[in-house]
Amino acid sequence: MAILVTGSAGFIGYHVCQRLLQRQEQVIGIDNLNDYYDVRLKQARLEQIQTYSNFQFYHSDITNRANLQTIVERHSNINRIVHLAAQAGVRYSLINPYVYAETNVLGHLTLLELCRKLPIQHLVYASSSSVYGANHKLPFSVQDPVEQPISLYAATKRSCELMSYTYSHLFKIPITGLRFFTVYGPWGRPDMSAFIFTKSILKDEKIPVFNHGDMRRNFTYVDDIVQGIIACLDRFSDKNQKINNLRSLAEETTVPHRLYNIGNNRSESLMDFIQTLEKIIGKKAKIHFEPMQPGDVKETIADISESTRDFEFLPKTNIEEGLKHFVTWYRSFYGI
User: pTM (2 decimals)?
Assistant: First the structure.
């Protein structure tokens, strides 16, 4: 059997593919390799996983229904999907809103329609902590109301959750949405804080620090995220857990759709995050304090009690260890 991974050349997608390939799964990867950030980084990730004989890649957009249909017809043994392809970034949604509707909403719908035609045991898709908007209650729980998103990005991710519930209800498709919390690590995205700060410190450039540094984030190391994704994928699939899979749960709850937080169980001060990077790099940062940006929130922290209970998700990497791994990768990749 095979696993379809969308966004396979992306930051998290690359790491998920690598982990699955290492345990001898057949992986079918899809990515459109868009230019939201440096395509050379995406291509470099892709080159790493294309060394595996059990990986096959398709350069395609998930909104292209004809291409997607051709791919799944060619690989009729696909029985699980990890859907990570999306237009990311809160701030970019203020500049190019249409791509968020096209990729995140229409692309997700295309995957859901695909699931109607395949014997899918489990679809796991990426949601985001951004759906919590400006909720003041901490930590964020999947039981909290999420009907007031403060960015278009968050609104599209919430739309994906609602569409998934509907398809799960109508067609009894086992679907799980994972709300990621500020993922960082080697091969990370250039628009994320660890990348921006490291690059700026090494180049002696000013770091933009929003809300005058009064922010906290639930920074989560990528290896912990990947462990959670794959544990969830396995836990609720016929392959490993027939008793606990979502089709069985459907008999009790009618709708085999679940939402979970996937994040660290503690939040870090943004200034502490920068100071840790300074210590690792051995150089002081030049900080330029700025006001809060539209769409941003002051603090995020995840309640992971349900994901720990249901598929034993428990982050193990502290911020010092995780940032050391990131800086080591960054220096090696860019030859600094």
Answer: 0.93
